[in-house]
Amino acid sequence: xxxxxxxxxxxxIDGLNAxxxxxxxxxxxxxxxxxxxxxxxxxxxxxxxxxVYSRMEVLPRISPxxxxxxxxxxxxxAQLDYDGTAYDCVFVFxxxxxxxxxxxxxxxxxFEPPAWRAxxxxxx
Length: 124
What we know:
Nuclear Transport Factor 2, Chain: A
C-alpha cells in the first residue's frame, strides 16, 4: 500500500468537501482522464475537468467508508450527499508519480431490499 497515494486521494476528498475544486489541479495530472460509466461520459485533461466542475450547481459531501491502495491503484468507497440525495460510490484511481492520472467513478442509489431476505442478511 502506498501511503502517499492514499494521502493524495484523501487530499482530494478533503478539498472537495471544503468546496475547493482547485485542489484537483494539485492531485490530478494535466492529462488525467475521468470516466463516469453510468452516464457514459469521459472528461479528458485539466481544461475540460475545470470547465465541467465550474458548471456544477452543487458539489457533493463525500463521506469515505474505506480507502485502500495496491501498486498504482487506490480504491475509495464512499457515500456522496448532494443536498440530501445520497449515492453510494466507488472510485478507482490510477496513480502516476504520486498524482491521479485516471479516475473511474461508479454511483448507485440506495434501495430497500426485499422482505424475503431479512432473515438471511445483516443490515448495515
